[in-house]
Known about the structure:
mainly alpha
Amino acid sequence: MLNDKEILNFEDLDEIEEVDATVGLETGVSGQTIARTIVTFLALLNAVLAITGKTPLDLDENTIYLICTGIASVATTIWSWWKNNSFTRRARTADLVKDGVKEAV
Length: 105
């Protein structure tokens, strides 16, 4: 296993990716991390509103759930729309050719 000093001195991207895979960074950000970040942001926003004399956000569990569900729905819709969704045989064949060209480059 590599220590912190060795990780900071990497020059080769392949070695960095190897370390990322070893540490488990390929899985991405967890849902718990996102939820904690949202809650922290809302708490800070409430504090700023209270300090400035504005009415703080009156959020209950149901409202937070609805907001998070709405954000997740919008995000998944945009992600699904952005991805290349090939339904026809011709489109799937074109995807195979495109992937072959990417591998060759």
